[in-house]
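Suppose you are handed a protein chain with no further information: no name, no annotation, nothing but its sequence. What can you learn? This example shows the usual starting point.
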Amino acid sequence: MENITETKYWHTLDDGRVQCDVCPRFCKLKEGQRGLCFVRARENDAIVLTTWGRSSGFCVDPIEKKPLNHFLPGTPVLSFGTAGCNLTCKFCQNYDISKSREFDKLAQQATPDMIAEAARLTGSRSVAFTYNDPVIFLEYAIDVARACHARNIKTVAVTAGYICDEPRREFFAHVDAANVDLKCFTEEFYQKLCSGHLQNVLDTLVYLKAETDVWFEITTLLIPGENDSAEEIHAMTTWIKESLGPDVPLHFSAFHPDWKMLDKPNTPPQTLFRSRDIALKNGLHHVYTGNIHDHNGSSTYCTGCGEILIGRDWYELSDWGVVIGGNDEARCKSCREPLVGVFDGPPGTWGRKRQQIQFKT
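A reasonable first move is to predict its three-dimensional structure. Written in structure tokens, the prediction is:
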């Protein structure tokens, strides 16, 4: 299978180098060089994607694991990624994939039609681009999305949102839902620990809210002593409320030592509880805790009467207080207050199962 595909987001500089314009890193490459992401390279005086059709593995997960709590709850999603990343997060929890510089990590090959058909055969309602950031394999992701939509299967992007304006518009035109990783709310953190910039991610969030119909949720991994202060959580959640509105779900996730940040302790549950309280007091309607066992912080509540609408135990649904009406509108069973999100009937029953998928080549 051919793994090299042409790209269009690049231009030639006066000094003869070619600049990649997919993300704000703007890698400037000589012939044969690769960008920091490792998968976009200069060949024959153009930028090409070197991992089209190659994956680090396929797995059917619960949609809640992405995490998405307001998008087709309880349903299975076929997840896959490639290799490489355009950020350098020292705390990466998928570093064996995202930091890979070896193509032997990409053991499986699959065309977009093969992926979409596998999703259909496994009963997956959606396909997720995840494990590493899909913006760096944009062309492959878009081709997969087209194949999925032809079969009425939705697409999900799990992304850090570190992408330039023009490719951002093309990419999200093919995406139905996203979880955007807002790593912190300070420029210092982004520069020191991720080699990136905060504003570019905020621009993606504002774009999604103001100019698209993509359903999106936000996740912040809380790292002790780095981005978990009450002041920073207050500033971040105030910005979300004012810039995106109160209904964008926010997930606070617990950190565990990994990759190049082994000197930090696990996030205490109390930090997540406190952060959730701050966000709720600042007017956000749906705030969740992740990577810990917390039924209260994992469940969805009615903004009208306060009743549990969707109870969760890890990735397993328990309570269901939602009624689905015309136009797939979700409402509280008790008071009929609307519930934001994407729903199209009763909840799925996939639970916390995880199913590996192998393609024959």
